[in-house]
Amino acid sequence: MPYVNIRITDEQVTAEQKAQLIQGATQLLVEVLGKNPATTFVIIDEVNTDNWGIAGNTVTNLRKQD
Amino acid sequence: MPYVNIRITDEQVTAEQKAQLIQGATQLLVEVLGKNPATTFVIIDEVNTDNWGIAGNTVTNLRKQD
Amino acid sequence: MPYVNIRITDEQVTAEQKAQLIQGATQLLVEVLGKNPATTFVIIDEVNTDNWGIAGNTVTNLRKQD
Amino acid sequence: MPYVNIRITDEQVTAEQKAQLIQGATQLLVEVLGKNPATTFVIIDEVNTDNWGIAGNTVTNLRKQD
Amino acid sequence: MPYVNIRITDEQVTAEQKAQLIQGATQLLVEVLGKNPATTFVIIDEVNTDNWGIAGNTVTNLRKQD
Amino acid sequence: MPYVNIRITDEQVTAEQKAQLIQGATQLLVEVLGKNPATTFVIIDEVNTDNWGIAGNTVTNLRKQD
């Protein structure tokens, strides 16, 4: 019955990549804890780079400095 | 002072249905625990079906198989 | 496939009350949105009153002022 | 290593205000707990006023009554 | 900069299993999206079976029916 | 009406420090966005170091390497 929430920045993640994250996270719970995949939820939240901060800066600003 | 977070797939939920979820969840906390509605928050997150997985599949794919 | 997270203060909530919250929240999603209860999750988080703040105060302090 | 999630209504918050929230929340963790800003995350979620309820009403409705 | 939150029932999960979940979830984000592991957080929440509901029942009750 | 969730490792945080986090986070929302403190929630989650991972390792293991 696990619930997995993956939060990432909203930077052109494809539907195929999302499907891989969902499959991989579900598989991980099956392998490590023997959980039932039928009742394993994975939710991906894509967050605008203006809304994600690290080290006191927005990711938008950090990307400009790269 | 409860906080309720309802996460559902983003599939044409109307403003009226959202209002019903908010009213119903608030009422539930009042009835079961005697909470004060004035400080009861309900937040609804609508999640794209590409971003929600169950049983290792995206809901987008599961809907196609119906 | 809804996911409902109910966060409340940790103040002697009984197992029976938790069961009522779970049943009521599930029923709400069935009635308002026609969701399938078999894949409806409800998770209750009980939070210490030292760790919950409102109006800039901890609930522990607010309870003392009552 | 703190993780801070700020949820607010989606009402014309500017990029500058978001940057201030991120900077301020990070600074708070540094000052109070001596945390390392380099591994402090702040994520801001903006929520539609139809999707946020208080006192059993949507914020959309509450704004109309003002 | 991903943030992964894994919520599972509190049923004798070992420190070794938690370490495997953390390693596996981090590896997944590296492989699928090329994320930097140094800024990938994984947080595991263990939830009492009284506090987790599925199909309108607590997991505590569902376990008794097995 | 903001909701702020601060997640930190469970390493002897005092009630006084928690009160400071709650006061500071509330003040931040008042100053930056003009929010009403009376309806500003702050919830602090303390997470066991076995349950928090960064860079693919548990914080428990990272602390040993210091």
Task: Summarize the structure in words.
The structure is a homohexamer of 66-residue chains. Chain A is of the alpha+beta class and 66 residues long. The first copy, chain A, has one domain (3-65): Macrophage Migration Inhibitory Factor (2-Layer Sandwich). Chain A contains two helices and four strands. A two-stranded parallel sheet of chain A has the order 1-2. The radius of gyration of chain A is 15 Å and the shape is elongated. Chains in contact: A-B, A-C, A-D, A-E, B-C, B-D, B-F, C-E, C-F, D-E, D-F, E-F. At the A-E interface, strand 1 and helix 1 of A face strand 1 and helix 1 of E.
Tally of strands of chain A = 4
Q: So, CATH architecture of chain A?
A: 2-Layer Sandwich
Looking across the biggest beta sheet of chain A, what order are the strands in?
Answer: 1-2
> Counting H and I runs of at least 4 residues, what is the number of helices of chain A?
2
Work out the strand percent of chain A.
Answer: 25-35%
- pLDDT averaged over residues of chain A: 96
Q: What spatial form of chain A do the alpha-carbon principal axes imply?
A: elongated
Low-confidence stretches of chain A at least 5 residues in length (pLDDT < 50)? none
Q: Residue share in helices of chain A? A: 25-40%
What structural class results from the helix and strand content of chain A?
alpha+beta
Radius of gyration of chain A: 15 Å
Largest sheet of chain A: 2 strands, parallel
Using CB atoms under 8 Å apart, which protein chain pair has the greatest interface? A-E, 25 and 25 residues
Oligomer: homohexamer
CATH fold naming of chain A: Macrophage Migration Inhibitory Factor
User: What is the CATH top level name of chain A?
Assistant: Alpha Beta
CATH superfamily of chain A: Macrophage Migration Inhibitory Factor
